[in-house]
């Protein structure tokens, strides 16, 4: 959500329905999917579902998904994803997010994927930004379209001067490279107001509404 409270893009969270037809949280099923070696299959299913939704809903906003670590490391998945997006009429409405730890653990591979996504005009973002001790030098190489500052760094942003200083630094680093900076897990007006003073480009969280099914 931008400063004018207009939706900048949407993010899809994968869920599996239980026996009562209610969505389970990721913590309830991801470990099982991983143990069965089905994480990449699940990512493929999510990509197909989102692209199908975009095809039947030709108007904005863009929809982004998070890739699992398994998919990030799987070059055959990269090839499949790029082929799938290459045959899609509006690839610019699709975005990929990868968490910062996964980026740092496979920077060369992600840099190649990032370049291919840019050629297709797909958005690329770094999720959970700011918590890794290795620093942010990789941003210059990767040049993501945006970063999402990890919610753990924003919990007390409306009251903690040290947090405000650190987050302001993260935003400045991103803006110096023409990278947009978004905030995660925002729940209070006071957090949003403080972040706007720090020149954040957008935010997401329960302040703007609870997740709902992708129609």
Structure description:
The structure is a single chain. By secondary structure, the protein is an alpha/beta fold. The chain folds into 2 domains: 1-144, Alpha-Beta Barrel (TIM Barrel), CATH 3.20.20; 147-209. The chain has helices at 26-35, 39-56, 69-73, 75-86, 100-105, 107-119, 138-142, 161-176, 189-197, and strands spanning 9-12, 16-17, 23-24, 62-66, 94-99, 123-129, 146-149, 180-183, 202-203. The strands form 2 sheets. Strands 1-4-5-6-7-8-9 form a 7-stranded parallel β-sheet. Strand 8 (180-183), helix 9 (189-197) and strand 9 form a beta-alpha-beta unit. The relative contact order is 0.12. Residues 1-215 form the EAL domain. InterPro entries: Cyclic-di-GMP_PDE-like (IPR050706), EAL_dom (IPR001633), EAL_sf (IPR035919).
Number of helices: 9
CATH uppermost class of the largest domain:
Alpha Beta
Low-confidence stretches: none
Query: What structural category do the secondary elements indicate?
Result: alpha/beta
How many domains? The number is: 2
SSE run = EEEHHEHHEHHEHEHEHE
Q: Using DSSP, what is the number of strands?
A: 9
Main sheet?
A: 7 strands, parallel
Strand-residue proportion: 15-25%
* Approximate helicity band: 40-55%
């Amino acid at each position: 959500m931008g400063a004018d409270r207009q939706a900048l893009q949407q993010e899809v969270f994968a869920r599996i329905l239980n026996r009562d037809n209610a969505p389970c949280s990721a913590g309830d099923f991801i470990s099982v999917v991983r143990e069965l070696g089905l994480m990449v299959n699940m990512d493929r299913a999510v990509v197909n579902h989102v692209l199908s939704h975009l095809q039947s809903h030709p108007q904005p906003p863009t929809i982004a998904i998070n890739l699992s670590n398994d998919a990030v490391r799987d070059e055959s998945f990269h090839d499949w994803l790029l082929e799938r997006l290459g045959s899609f009429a509006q690839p610019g409405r699709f975005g990929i997010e990868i968490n910062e730890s996964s980026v740092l653990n496979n920077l060369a591979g992600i840099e190649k994927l990032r370049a291919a996504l840019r050629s297709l005009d797909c958005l690329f973002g770094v999720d959970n930004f700011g918590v890794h001790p290795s620093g942010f030098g990789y941003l210059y190489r990767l040049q993501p379209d945006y970063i999402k500052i990890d919610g753990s760094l924003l919990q007390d942003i409306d009251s903690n001067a040290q947090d405000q200083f650190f987050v302001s630094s993260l935003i400045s680093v991103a803006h110096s490279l023409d990278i947009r900076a978004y905030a995660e897990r925002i729940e209070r007006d006071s957090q949003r107001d403080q972040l706007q003073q720090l020149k954040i480009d957008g935010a997401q969280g329960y302040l703007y509404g609870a997740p709902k099914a992708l129609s």
